[in-house]
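tool_log.txt
---
The assistant was asked to compare two proteins side by side. It first ran the structure predictor on the initial sequence, then on the second. Raw inputs and outputs are pasted verbatim so the downstream comparison step can read them without reformatting.
(1)
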Amino acid sequence: MIGTLGGNVKAIPLQKYLFLFTRLQPEAERAYDFVPYQYGCFSFQANQDLASLARQGYIEFGDQNSIRLIQDINYLDGLDLFEQSNLEAVKEKFGKMTQDELIHYTYANYPFYATRSRIAKDLMSDEEMAKIDAQKRHFDEPMLFTIGYEGLSLEQYIKRLILYDVRTLCDVRKNAYSQKYGFSKFTLEKACAGVGIRYVHVPQLGIVSEKRQDLRSQKDYDILFDEYERTTLKENMDALLYVRSILDSDKRVALTCFEKDPKQCHRSRVANALMRLPNIEYDLKLL
């Protein structure tokens, strides 16, 4: 994309060009996923890839958030004709737009991705802002959610939280570290903050990794989680009540861990324990 656009492009427009490029790809094959962010559509993975390309000497960052190719290589040769055609189509239709024109176009045509923007009111008309506001998700019903990030990109995960108006994410892993990009504590907390979601790590409600090494069947999981309920949950009632206090104040809270299947994750036992507490005013939903 950078090469197609002349070898030098600014960071914010590049995110928009990549977004528009992915709109031309089949949904299941899109190169990047995006979330509504501070300046509109944003891919955390694309941003991370740029940092990797810089470390490896393919690009360099310059003044005013510019990104420049520093190797004279025709990268288009590595793509199929369909992708080359789509890159050229993006260049032809959008390459001559100013940054503000490009942002305005994406906000007007994809208003959901402008719902977290800091600058939308400066660029959009009242009518256009009404369309953006109509895309914002807000629900009054108190709700406890559980969600695992297995099989999801960071963007898909954050987008799901936004769609269900999750206001606080409670990470119940013992160690909030992941080899999968985006799901270690610092990165996940930063991503949540960027879309207005509070992140809270509650390690007291986690299970030490050593106990999870030999889980081969659902029965193994059930035995482990039964023990977890008898020990860790009872011994850390203060931590459970802390999560309950967040529910009472923030109303829409998600418990998170790794596993996609809630039956194979202790977060389901945490959720059930919360639902058994007195004076429940919220429902439980699996994401």
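(2)
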Amino acid sequence: MFKELWRQRAELIAADLERELRATKSLDENLLRAMEYSLLAGGKRLRPILLMAAADSVGVSGEKFIKVADALEMIHTYSLIHDDLPAMDNDDYRRGKLTNHKVFGEATAILAGDALLTLAFEVALRQKEVAPEILLEVLKEISTAAGVAGMVGGQAIDLHAEGVKIDFATLKLMHLGKTGALFRAAIRSGAILAGATAQKLESLTCYAENFGLAFQITDDILDVTGDEKILGKPTGSDAKNLKSTYVSLTSLDEAKKLAAATVEAALDALKNFGDEADFLRELVKYLVAREK
């Protein structure tokens, strides 16, 4: 049931993303092809699915909010395109395919990322059946998460940390921004769109923060133990780039224990929810068992 719902919603999101791209007018067709190359390359669609699941957990079908969900995936994809650039992580593969700049060139890849980031907010504003003040609140959540107090700020810390051993607190701050902020925004946005009470929003925020941490610790573990063919990208890149990770600052065993403890904290945050939050429960447990 859990995986089937995930598959169904991933397909729903992918189809709507494709419709949005088909309706997008670009002055340059090659730029549109570069956007499509990365946005429609598959992936877990985790952030939009989290938004939907959060709405489900407070009693409203998350599929109702697909345009805001689309926007989250566009923002995530822009960040991946830029993350892979030579000036950033300099990666050649993403999701088993050549990275955007390897196919379209560095300049076009930068512009494709820029275009997806800006298109995201245009698409989100097409969301129907949401009061304008609620939609504005959600867009503030998402824009803050994507900016200097979130993803961009976390990426800046990451760049400065290359080749430097940072402490645990700095590592956690970096990933709260780079990885965790958009997860937090996805879950909070779904809850806000669905009209969550203040108490439920607080509980879901706690879940989101632990979810993001568990996801990042597991990513660090997979960079050491994962199979490149399953992951769709090279392993060992953290060590190659001399990056501090939860594995390098503790150990593989300690990182696994920390991931398990973080999952338990996420589950505990949902203790006052009924079976409408089961997808969120299954998802965070899946995190520590995943292979990609």
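---
observation on (2): The beta strands are 93-94, 97-98. The longest strand covers residues 93-94.
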